[in-house]
Every structure is written in structure tokens, then in C-alpha cells.
Design goal:
- The chain is an all-alpha fold.
- It has a single domain, classed as Orthogonal Bundle (MetI-like fold), CATH 1.10.3720.
- It has ten helices and no strands.
- The N terminus is likely disordered.
Length: 284
């Protein structure tokens, strides 16, 4: 490999990461705007039943057609996207807020602190994600807030482990040892030196997990354990349309496409952030 090619690689990597961040961030930003402005953008009431429009094909008045009760699919997709994004983003943010201090404490202090936190997190990792979510909801009851809480608990050990690994790497650097030698307390060393430099991989992992959280929320709603009717949800729409897939495929296609676009947005954003913030691959 020539010297010129070697020198171009970092710049090419930066351009590629910026491109992915722009694509993923743009998709997610657009979907969030649509979700927030759902009452303004939806052409019809998503819960309004119109008997004459049962399984109506797409037309100018109903671009995405109508479902088994004659409800406008486009309006329901917009409101369903709102519910699904709210649950997935809230779950990942809640998990992130708890996981970061746990990972920092485990990675920085080590010894018994690390052992206690790691063993607690291992208890959660023992169970498959969907099984743990179903068990969680079986105890507390179905609903969007309970689904968000269950997803947050599921992803807590993943984010905490990434934060711990990143903290272990950062805390070995000379500037952290130098700060401690100059009399900085553990708290000051963590806040000023360790946390800012260790957060990158955790942010990357959170953006990737948001895509999985949206899929998990859709799966729970499909099973009737997530967002409850009559509130529209993308997974619930897939469940409603599975019996009429042959007669009215639009009932399934459009909520499925909304899930695909949202997952792609989070995936592109996560990959771009990984290349920019996690060159060592701690979050992989």
C-alpha cells in the first residue's frame, strides 16, 4: 500500500461515517417530525370506522387504502409510527441513563464493585429478550409504558457492559493517572476525564439498540402485549392484517415498510456513529 493511499484512508473513513450519519439521522429526524406532527399530517381519524370502506383499495382519498374496519391505513401508520418510536426511544434512553453510571462504576473501580454489578447484569442476560419481555409484561400487565420498561431492562446489561469495557480502556490512560496524582478525587476524575472519553461506544450501541427496540416493540404489539387498541401501533396493524393478506396486502405492506425504514435509519445512524466515535470497536 502506498503512502498516499494510507494518508487518504482516515479522510475516506470520515466521509463515509458522515454520509451514513446524514442518511440515518435524516431518516430518523423525518420520522420523528412525522410522529410529532401526526395530528396535523394524518388525513383522517385513525380510529374512525367507515363501513363502506372495508378493505378499500388505495385511492386519492385513502392513499394507503383501508383496513378490515374501514379505517384509513395511512393515518394509522402515522399514529402507529408515533407509538412505536415513542416506546423504542424511551426504552433506550431509560436504559442508557441507568447503564452509563453502572458501567462507569464497574470499569473504573473494579474489584468487588465490578463483580457485584457484573453478576447482577448477568442475571438479566440469562433470559432471551422476548421471553424476558413477555414475563415482565405478564407480571405488570400489557401497555406501551410497560413495554418500554421491559425493553429498557432487557438492554440495560448490554449498554452497561459496553460502558464498562470503554471505561476500562480510558481509565488506563496517563491523563487519568495524572489527574489522580494531582489530587483529583475519583468523582472529578470520572466526570472530567473518564466519562467524556468513554461515552462514545455507549452512544453507538444505544443507536444500534434503538433499531432492535423498535422491532421488539412491534413484536410485542403483534402479540397484543405492547400498545393496546384502539391506539394504533405498527405491530398491532400487522396482527390485524395477517388474516386479509391476500385480499388486501396494503394493510400489511405499509406498516411493514414503516418498520423497515425506521430500522434502516437507526442502523445507518449507528454504523456512522460507530465509525466516527468507536474506532476501536468496543461496541461491536
Amino acid at each position: 500500500m502506498t503512502v498516499a493511499a494510507t494518508e487518504q484512508r482516515p479522510g475516506a473513513r470520515t466521509r463515509e461515517s458522515n454520509r451514513l450519519i446524514r442518511i440515518g439521522g435524516g431518516l430518523i429526524a423525518a420520522l420523528i417530525v412525522i410522529a410529532v406532527a401526526a395530528p396535523l399530517l394524518a388525513p383522517h381519524d385513525p380510529e374512525a370506522v367507515e363501513v363502506s370502506r372495508v378493505l378499500g383499495a388505495p385511492d386519492l382519498a385513502h392513499p394507503f387504502g383501508s383496513d378490515v374496519l374501514g379505517r384509513d391505513v395511512l393515518s394509522r401508520v402515522i399514529f402507529g409510527l408515533r407509538a412505536s418510536l415513542a416506546v423504542s426511544i424511551a426504552a433506550v434512553l431509560g436504559s442508557f441513563v441507568v447503564a452509563v453510571p453502572l458501567g462507569l462504576a464497574a470499569g473504573y473501580f473494579g474489584r468487588w464493585t465490578d463483580s457485584a454489578i457484573s453478576r447482577l447484569l448477568d442475571l438479566i442476560l440469562v433470559f432471551p429478550a422476548m421471553l424476558l419481555a413477555v414475563a415482565f409484561i405478564a407480571v405488570l400487565g400489557p401497555g406501551s409504558s410497560i413495554a418500554a420498561l421491559a425493553i429498557a431492562v432487557i438492554y440495560l446489561p448490554i449498554l452497561a457492559r459496553v460502558m464498562r469495557a470503554s471505561t476500562l480502556i480510558v481509565s488506563r490512560n496517563d491523563y487519568v493517572s495524572g489527574a489522580r496524582a494531582r489530587g483529583a478525587s475519583h468523582w472529578r476524575a470520572i466526570v472530567q476525564h473518564v466519562a467524556p472519553n468513554a461515552l462514545g461506544p455507549a452512544v453507538v450501541q444505544a443507536s444500534v439498540l434503538a433499531a432492535f427496540a423498535l422491532q421488539l416493540e412491534a413484536g410485542l404489539s403483534f402479540l397484543g402485549l405492547g400498545t393496546q387498541p384502539p391506539t394504533p401501533s405498527l405491530g398491532g396493524m400487522l396482527a390485524d392484517g395477517r388474516e386479509v393478506l391476500v385480499q388486501a396486502p396494503w394493510v400489511e405492506i405499509f406498516p411493514g415498510l414503516a418498520i423497515v425504514i425506521a430500522v434502516l435509519g437507526f442502523t445507518f445512524l449507528g454504523e456512522g456513529l460507530r465509525r466516527a466515535l468507536d474506532p476501536r470497536g468496543v461496541a461491536e
